[in-house]
Amino acid sequence: MPIDFRSLVLTRRRFVQFGAAGSLSMGGLIDAKLRADNAKITVPSSIRACIFVFYYGGPSHLDTYDLKPHAPSTVRGEFQPIKTSVPGLQISELLPNLSRVMHHCALIRSMHHNNRLHDSASIETHTGRQASQGDREEFAPIPQFHPSHGGTISYLMRDRRLDVAHAALPFVFNNVVPTPCQGGGFLGSAFDPFRVTVDSEKQHYIAEELSIRSELPTQRIGSRRDLLSTLQPVTLKSTAEFDQYYNRAYQLLGSEKIRRALDLSEETPETRQRYGVYPENVAGHGVAHHMRGQNLLVARRLVEAGVPFVNVYDFRQQGQNWDAHANNFAQHKEHLVPPAEKSLAALINDLQERGLLDSTLIVATGEFGRTPQINNGAGRDHWPDCYSVLLAGGGIQGGAIHGASDAIGAYPDKDPATPADLAATIYWRFGFDPKQHIVDRTGRPWHVTDGEPIKHLFNA
To answer: Number of structural domains, the chain?
Structure first.
């Protein structure tokens, strides 16, 4: 929808109010216009939450969701396809738990982009846009430009009274430095995620934003708020947006439901075990719950607490992650796939049993796939030219498939899809028009995404 910049006119009184607050900016004025324009757009809303599970490093699509059993041995690898709960749909033998819930899932088998390095590929995966710095790795911190899915959802829901709109756990993922795709980007730090970290030794989840510093007792915090309220009419007369964020901070400090969502002691041992446990003693704790699975359990609890968008990052950096340049088959079979597929299937079943699956969209993806050709180290290398994404819940047509790869899984053979299309699908399922506008700090308008939602994967 085009923006009529001529309509962005301030009255003298409004000008003075903006000036007194130090808030006069073209971005702020355009934002007010966009609120009015975007409010006229109506899209049917079907979901209330999305859990975006990110397998950093790049899982092999050829060994999970898109096997090629008739390809040459240098391509097909070691694993065999198995039947699923959907007649005619087969996936890898490494995925026995997921095979039983595929009637709740859909697959995109033609996802692709042009980024061959982790950072740039992760940026496009989490924002739906090419990294502004191009296809390269970052070895020094750089600011994020395009907002993440969660940051955008948080912005689009900014007028709702939500304790938390976007949460991310259990760490800030990175290779060498934090990858600049996890926050609000040009929308501002107010739309960065609510950060949840984990102490795996104590099996305890922590959110600093819920903690009150010991030197600031409740009485003192109340006094600070009273002081600000006294000063506000003089110095912050028109900062409604500031009020919103300030009040949200206080609301979060008092949010018992978010605090309780992070307390897994409220779950039964049986439920926690469904999400996965270590098979051996770990750090002297006996049979310790596998925290990769517990991350997904916390995500479910955050959704129950009313959080619309939750990012779960599977691995932090180089080492034990999905970047299997060597020993790809042993890594996937013994270390990577079993806890990931068990916990993902548990999440799908758990949401279904609680009546939350239809209203919660699960997205499970890496930043790219792996090369069809097996290298000399029995590994597979980076391959963004074609890979698979699993979707579950959120009104999915069970067993639906979008696109297809060629005979060796190298390139899309049918209906290619991009991370922008995935982003558009997420926003559309939340009831937002992917073509509505947001603005960057210079006042430049952007479509929420330039992709197209993949609507046929969902029930009418």
So the answer is: 1
